Amino acid sequence: MQPPPRKVKPAQEVKLRFLEQLSILQTRQQREADLLEDIRSYSKQRAAIEREYGQALQKLAGPFLKREGHRSGEMDNRTVFGAWRCLLDATVAGGQTRLQASDRYRDLAGGTGRSAKEQVLRKGTENLQRAQAEVLQSVRELSRSRKLYGQRERVWALAQEKAADVQARLNRSDHGIFHSRTSLQKLSTKLSTQSAQYSQQLRAARNEYLLNLVATNAHLDHYYQEELPALLKALVSELSEHLRDPLTSLSRTELEAAEVILEHAHRGEQTTSQVSWEQDLKLFLQEPGVFSPTPPQQFQPAGTDQVCVLEWGAEGMAGESGLEKEVQRLTSRAARDYKIQNHGHRVLQRLEQRRQQALEREAPGIEQRLQEVRESIHRAQVSQVKGAARLALLQGAGLDVQRWLKPAMTQAQDEVEQERRLSEARLSQRDLSPTAEDAELSDFEECEETGELFEEPAPPALATRPLPCPAHVVFRYQAGHEDELTIMEGEWLEVIEEGDADEWVKARNQHGEVGFVPERYLNFPDLSLPESGQDSDNPSGAEPTAFLARALYSYTGQSAEELSFPEGALIRLLPRAQDGVDDGFWRGEFGGCVGVFPSLLVEELLGPPGPPELSDPEQVLPSPSPPSFSPPVPTSALDGPPAPVLPGDKALDLPGLLDMMAPRLRPVRALALGKSVCRGSFHPVLLCLQGCGNRDNLKGGLWRTNCVFPTDASTTSPAS
């Protein structure tokens, strides 16, 4: 089976769609601006050549007709471009009667402004980008909650497998020589506890994912049904004010200037008057296809989890907060949004009245206040839509939403009614001074500030893997593209950055080659245990164990039991006895060979700590099942079947589940340089202590040392 395709993240997909919407909208606005420029240029030239013969007038209209023919097929008579085409036809027919309309055309050419159209476009584009940014933020929150949910499900499934395996061994009394039945029972109890904990975390992540899912869908629907049409309608209505007057003036000038072409001019006037901006907007929305609502987001179960509804936790609680607490928070927020909208509309009316009576120097400040109030109302509307969707989902899950919603809304309505009466009392006293309006604004700001307690909680931040980090290849992979890297089973890589899509990372091998590899084909040993695991397994607070080592210098083994490696090599350290003596030589594996080497020639790379009882490789429990996809088919029949897949897609914030899949290593200490007399002088030497077989000999001082001179390997000689 081939590796998984590179999926585009939902946030990127929505962002690309929004960028396409902006691009198409700007293209349309550019066409409309070009149309304004055409009308201005047309009127200016028309005024200059009205005194000329009709032949010159026909030549003038010809280029515009040809230019209009190259545009898109929006030739419906109810559109601006259809009316413009009819007007050009009327111009050609009445070329000889246009001499008296020279002054009118001159005035029309000076009245068509392009700067006003550009200002309207800039304002509308800013509002659209603001609305798109809010939707994109909701989609990103949905992506984060979905990723967290997938990670929690994989961790839970792995814990379930391990617990089932240990229970099966316990039932068969298959505890081997290194385990007793009591130890297996303790291990089974521990794994069962971990499984229950991860199940609760999975439930909380799933509930958060479902809530974000319905909220994002509601936000998207509100964007396509309410915000986007309103913004586009505002832009089109502004354009109509700049296009209707010039087109109507041109048509009326035709009627007054020439009786001969009365029929053509009358047709042009009717066409202009029949321009339907609603129809124009409808055709514009139907043509590109990108402004149509996107399909609602669907819940995507992760792994083997098939639960797709809100689920109650133990004692009616779900996750950490509980669904009932979530209902209380949402109903309080719904009441707050209701108050903000009602109060905001009342404040808008006061500010509109004040703007009409205010001086010119006060107008910018009032306009800024109006914009702030509109944005507050908009935020409350979006919050109300998302909250209603979440409450509907919670009510469908069996919670009595009306129990909290009715009292909250009743209280909010009473408060709104009380504020309305207070406002009417101010008006009845003819108190329209700035002091009274400032009081209204102060009340509105206080209403907004109280809503900070009901802000949506930010999703939990996902733990990130420190980069660069080492990784062990558990499956062979043959690169299929130029930017991918071929890897071999058992090889060590250095992951340098996350990939451009899920389940891919960029890594560097020992030869310095860089490329993308499937993340699930790797095993990352640099994850730490949860706090609970650290407290129970490492109570003494010992330093973490070195799992890997990087060679600082190249080394050639002096005997068959020593390991050779080049500079920069990644060496996997093998475990030593818990009560062993650090003799300056470590045991490791490199390139498929196992041997000892001087510890001063390498630097430690910290890896996962582990309990002492798992230091023996023979005590490793069976590996869990492979990931959801298998490795690619070998390129050659000699490669043989692939090895089992080790889970490489671990949850970054829930490490420690795979700690039993690798032997534990003990803390190591650097060995200092000693001194030895050789040929009458002192030389720094590396004392390599070699045990004589058992601890009694070591305690009795029966050691044998080898003095290795770093400057010249040939002078190595044993010393007692």
Automatic annotation (TrEMBL):
It is found in: Cell projection; Cytoplasmic vesicle; Perikaryon. Keywords: Cell projection, Coiled coil, Cytoplasm, Cytoplasmic vesicle, Lipid-binding, Phosphoprotein, Repeat, SH3 domain. The keyword Cytoplasm applies. Pfam families: FCH, SH3_1, SH3_9. One of its GO terms (biological process) is response to hydrogen peroxide. GO terms for molecular function: lipid binding. Gene3D superfamilies: Arfaptin homology (AH) domain/BAR domain, SH3 Domains. Residues 466-527, 544-607 form the SH3 domain. InterPro entries: AH/BAR_dom_sf (IPR027267), F_BAR_dom (IPR031160), FCH_dom (IPR001060), FCHSD_SH3_1 (IPR035460), SH3-like_dom_sf (IPR036028), SH3_domain (IPR001452). GO terms for cellular component: cell projection; cuticular plate; cytosol; neuromuscular junction; perikaryon; protein-containing complex; recycling endosome. The keyword Phosphoprotein applies. Residues 623-634 have a biased composition (Pro residues). Its main location: other. Residues 607-648 are annotated as: Disordered. CDD domains: SH3_FCHSD1_2, SH3_FCHSD_1. Residues 12-280 form the F-BAR domain. Promotes actin polymerization mediated by SNX9 and WASL. Homodimer. Interacts (via F-BAR domain) with SNX9 (via SH3 domain). Interacts (via F-BAR domain) with SNX18 and SNX33. Interacts (via SH3 domain 1) with WASL. Interacts (via SH3 domain 2) with ITSN1. PANTHER family: F-BAR AND DOUBLE SH3 DOMAINS PROTEIN 1, FCH AND DOUBLE SH3 DOMAINS PROTEIN. This is F-BAR and double SH3 domains protein 1. It comes from Aotus nancymaae.
